[in-house]
Amino acid sequence: MYFFWKALFGEIFKRYKLTDIVDGSEPCPDRFLIDMNGNITNQAHPAFDVWHQKDQKIIMWIKSTLSEDVVLPLVITGDIPSNSSRELWLGLEKRFAVAGVSAEYRRSMFAAALATTDICDANTALFSGRVVTLKVFEDNTLVLEALSRHGEGRVLVVDGGGSMRRAVTGGKIAKYAELMGWAGIVVNGCVRDVDEINECEIGVRALATCPVRTTRGKDGSSGQKHVDVNIGGTWILDGEWLYADNDGILVSTTKLSI
User: 0.85 cut: is pTM over it?
Assistant: First the structure.
């Protein structure tokens, strides 16, 4: 699960040009300006405020995807420091990463973990179904178009480009999808109206929440339907089968006998 989570955030950092802060290649500027004699002045350094805002945003994004019962004990013991996004990132890497494994092996580990915890042992999943894929960015026109058709127990997988600025779906859309017979919605991006979504009899998974709704195009051209999508380094193809629960998501090329 950690490798999948890390890959998702890697794409987000690249999109918003925050990678240099996390990897340390863009260090924190001095808080105050230095005069020609090399003395620290009481004048605030503009670059520090910009850097600090980005750093705090990264920390907020990371912590919003991790439960307190995981993070808080590690922060208290000092295993995961929280002074900066880089320290937090390195702390998580030290605590959860396993060195020397290939991307293919990480994917097999991810699938195996799900199989042993739920599919093999409990033989259940919170929601599952055949995949319908979309690729959009901060525009949910195609999402509404897809969900307006009878779901027949399928799962809509939306690659929202990892955007943290707008929510691809919300409570009303989730309820509509439930009434139309969809089993679930998986979003590489944000959702909103979490309380309303939790009351729906449909599974919804996303990277995070955001109160701002998406824009909507007039002709539905801002996106792609039934295309292969890559989420966190994992390819998900239209027509594959998806199984999800509270531990994670498993994708299979064929329907599993569960």
Answer: no
